[in-house]
Amino acid sequence: MTVGIGTGGGLTTPSEEELAEYEQERPARRLRPALDLAIAVWCTIVSVGVLAQVFFPLPQGTQFYLVIFLAAVLPITLLCYRGWKVPSSTTTRTRWSR
After folding, report:
1. Cα torsion 82, 84, 88, 94: sign
2. Most CB atoms within 10 A, among 13, 39, 52, 63?
3. CA dist., res. 17 & res. 63, Å (int)
4. Cβ partners under 8 Å of residue 38, min gap 6
């Protein structure tokens, strides 16, 4: 499969570095031990809820369950994975960000 980038004058093939920048998975960030434990417990509760839904479905139906599931899982995903790059200048702690 050929991937091209439109530059107005035609298509150019991106380099391996450019492709790797957008295709690589972003690593999870390091969380404090207390927050890490809380997320692990929350994920366990969600897993038990999913198994309960499989064997004992809610009478309201699948759509109702999906809303509950997304409300439980999406905040955890946003806590664990950054959706943006952090510039190297902001990774150092300043005196007011304790």
Report:
1. negative
2. 39
3. 42
4. none
